[in-house]
Structures are given as structure tokens and as C-alpha cells.
User: What shape does this take?
Amino acid sequence: MFVDKPATVLPSLRQRRRAAATREIMDAAERQIAERGPHALSLRAVARDLGMTVQGLYHYFPNRDALVTALVAKAYDDLAAAVTAAVDATADEPAAQRFLAAAEGYRRWAVTHVERFQLLYGAPLRHYEAPAEGPTTQAMRRLSMVFQREIFDGFTTAQLAAADTRELSPAVQAHLGPLFPHGSESLPPPAAALLLGVWGHMHGMVALEAFRHTAFIGEHQAEIFCMTMRDLLEDLHRRIPTRPPQAPAAT
Assistant: This one.
């Protein structure tokens, strides 16, 4: 007996035109950022480049913040896609190699798209505040999950909870506890602190290179970066016990 499959509902002509116009506006805004930097972003200039009025642009983005939010979320998604592609290319390698590939993918995207990287991590745009738990936050979490997966691959929750870190205050533990999802649970606070430390070191080196503060290293920056990431990961893994701690025997 054949069962009719439900018909796929195609977007209407109006929806397709709106989606195409939205893409054109985003592309024009990204070109403006690439040419002049994120702080020079102007809705009036974007509208002028597209041959439309600012009032017409407001039909797609009601204000500057809405456009910036969309641009930031797209930049995070593109960065996450670059990192994921780098990891996928080393899918058959050990987790340490996949982490190094992810870090290099992060670095390569940043130094290739400096202005968009600046939009994400440069000086905040004046009068802009990302919506709480909005698309920018969700996109950033997707990127974080890639690194979290590769850094802690093969370790159990019990091992991560026993990671050797400086003693965390109860307030910090309570804050870090629900911050990073880890399967059906949350990443234990010691592991969350280690993850933030790795990201801070990695991002700091990438930002220094992207904003040309380490230009004096020249063509050797990639090698120095890779060496640092390898050492950083090895140090982190030394802090995680090979076996979870055993509960004391009952007397």
C-alpha cells in the first residue's frame, strides 16, 4: 500500500523576494565592513549602495541594531563553519590533532576576515547591545561546542569534575556549573574553567596576529601558534586524572 508523502510547502514569491532582498542588504553591509571597518557601518550608506531608501531598508531591518545582530550571528556561523570544516578534514585523526585543526581553522578565518573578526571581538560598537539569549549568543555557543568536544573527547564527567585546578570559590562554581552543556549534564566547573583558559590563550594569540601586533614574527606566526596550542592542550590534559577518583571504602 502506497502512502502519499506530504507535499513540501515552498516559500511564496513574496517570501523569496524578501529573503533575496535580505541577503543583498547583508552582503552590502559586509562589503562596507570589509572596506571601512565595523564602526563605519551606516544604514544610509548600505541603502545608497543598493539604490534604495533608508525607509525601504527598515522594512527588512527595523533599526541598526537588528542589522548588526544579524551580521554578528552570520559571522559567528561562518567562523564555526570554518572551524568545523577544519575538524572534519581530520576526522580520522586523534582528538589532539582535531583540536589543533580547529584552532588553526579559527586562526585562518580570523586573519583572512579581519574586519568581520573585529566585528565579533574588537571594540564594542557604540550604543549596540546584543539581545540576551538572542541569535548572537546561540551562534557563539555553537562555536564553543566544537572546541569543547575536541578538547575533552574521551574523558568522563567524573574525570572532568576531578580536574586539577586552583580551588574555585562557591560563587564561581555556581556560575560555571550550568554554563556549558555536556551531554545530558553540564560541564563540571573545573573543566569549564580550563576550557575558558584555553579559549582565552588561543583567542589572545589570534587577536594579536589579526590586528598585526605580532607582525614582527613574520611568516613564522602559524608555527608559533601551533606549538603554543599543542603545549596548551598537553598541559590541560595533564590536569585531568586518567581515572576518576574512587570513593573511600566504607568502614
In short: The chain is about 60% helix and 0% strand. Strands lie at 181-182, 185-186.
